[in-house]
Amino acid sequence: MELANKVVIVTGASSGIGLATAKLLAKQGAKLALVARSKDKLDALAKELPGSLAITADMTKAPQIRKMIRQAKKHFGRIDVLINNAGQGYDAPVEKTDIKTLRGIFDLDFVGPLVAMEEAIPIMRKQGNGAIVNISSGTVLMTLPNNGAYSSIKRALATLSLTAREELKKDNIVVSVVYPYMTLTDFEKNTIKNDVPEWEGEAFHPPDSAEHVAEKIVEVIKSGDAEVFAHDWMKTMGKNEKG
Ligand SMILES: NC(=O)c1ccc[n+]([C@@H]2O[C@H](COP(=O)([O-])OP(=O)(O)OC[C@H]3O[C@@H](n4cnc5c(N)ncnc54)[C@H](OP(=O)(O)O)[C@@H]3O)[C@@H](O)[C@H]2O)c1
């Protein structure tokens, strides 16, 4: 899908990957619905990106998500692309996983994207086309200690997305998954940590910029591929782990 004049919803547009993606999409002529909880940051960004609309919504609250999608449709008249990017990390050993925290992360990283899809799909079907891009994580390609809850949820999101892709082919709605590698944003700072030792390992590769991931997101909207990885070498990540 080409992006000029297309209406794109970006969740988590106030920071990091979502912010970089919104800026890149605006450069390509897309009209943006910018979604997050931080009203001031969204309002400032909307001023920077003329023609865009700031919508404050908590992506863990289904009524707010449904309202946000309807608001975007009402304002722009259509929704061409939904990018489910808002998310948060959670590091804890399996034994110490706090169930309440886990449910909060599940609401944000899995249920939120699902609700947004449920509300956007009928609109896209009626239009005759659409694209949905869900942001998973490279951690789902590995087995990382202390990352079980977050990785499981992001793996579930990938499976949900690929299932929806098959279901929606007949409606000309293309669903894709993006797997970022470690990316320099506020993600690490915002990750909730439970009983986790300071990480002393070394990254296999240097971390990416948010702009690098934004390029991958734009690439997948254009190509309609099922999955895109921040780097090709990620496709074999975890394949050599000893069983
Ligand atoms: N950075 C990495 O290393 C990395 C690696 C793999 C995958 N990812 C995934 O990439 C996506 C973007 O992360 P990032 O690195 O850009 O992190 P970030 O800088 O922490 O940004 C997270 C974004 O999500 C929004 N958000 C958080 N909770 C929200 C809520 N309840 N309702 C609405 N919006 C909410 C935040 O906005 P407000 O606080 O204003 O609401 C912010 O815009 C996430 O899904 C993350 O899991 C990141």
Describe the protein's architecture and organization.
- The chain has seven helices and eleven strands.
- The chain is an alpha/beta fold.
- The protein has a seven-stranded parallel sheet with strand order 3-2-1-4-6-7-11, with helices on both faces. The protein has a two-stranded parallel ribbon with strand order 5-9. Strands 8-10 form a two-stranded parallel ribbon.
- α2 (39-48) links the parallel β2 (31-36) and β3 (53-56).
- The model has no long low-confidence stretch (mean pLDDT 95).
- It binds NADP nicotinamide-adenine-dinucleotide phosphate.
- NADP nicotinamide-adenine-dinucleotide phosphate binds next to α1 and α6.
Compact overview of the structure:
By secondary structure, the protein is α/β, with parallel strands linked by helices.
Strand order of the largest sheet: 3-2-1-4-6-7-11
What is the CATH homologous superfamily assignment? Answer: NAD(P)-binding Rossmann-like Domain
Total domain count: 1
Bound ligands, named by name, code or SMILES: NADP nicotinamide-adenine-dinucleotide phosphate
Separate helix tally: 7
Class by helix and strand content?
alpha/beta
**Distance separating the two termini:** 41 Å
Mean pLDDT: 95
CATH architecture: 3-Layer(aba) Sandwich
Largest sheet: 7 strands, parallel
Cα radius of gyration in angstroms = 17 Å
Order of helices and strands: EHEHEHEEHEHEEHEEHE
Low-confidence stretches: none
Q: Report the top-level CATH class.
A: Alpha Beta
Work out the helicity level.
Answer: 40-55%
